[in-house]
Amino acid sequence: MAQNKFNSGNFPDSNPAGYYRIISFGDKIDFGSIETSARWNITNSKEGIGVTLNGSEINDYIFQYAGEYEIQFSETKKHDEGCNHPAFPKKIIVKVNPVKLSFDFSKIGFSQKIRRGINYDNLIVSVPGKINIQGKTANEVKAPELLITGVGTSLLAQPVNGTIEIKNGTQVFKYKISGRVDKESYLMFDFYDFNDEVQSFNLQQIIN
Hints:
By secondary structure, this protein is mostly beta strands. The protein contains no helices and 15 strands. The chain has 2 domains: 26-97; 101-202, Immunoglobulin-like (Sandwich), CATH 2.60.40.
């Protein structure tokens, strides 16, 4: 089956096309607190979308369809007049992918309890992920990454399966963990989706 990854590379800084953001259909983008003097013109010519929004209304806009959206930014006053929001480019491009992945951390599982001072080479972390698809898309994609951080921690994660079959429904994502924790620490598990956006899980127990 053909392989494809919706965003080249495994991490957020790998974006050769220079998109402002890469998200999934049905998502929003938080641009922060925006003054009412700001105006946003959103277009997606393929879907016949043309919307004009003011100020922070952009934060509630739902990108319903996959494709590329051009967003033109303008404002009625200059920044030297005391604007309280960041300066945005006059034009930005947002890519909206046709696949959405949501991890269910209420059902995350560990094949072993993680303890301090133990070398692990075959610890398995598993978590269900719900996939929703809009239209036609690739049959398989590269499995998303997992990063683990914590004080005195050198745990590396490798997907058990190198590719993921893209189909509607819930799949279990499994990662093989190697390395060790040398200090008392809380661990954070950063699960990347197909857009290289992070969904984080904080392990509540301290590793000791």
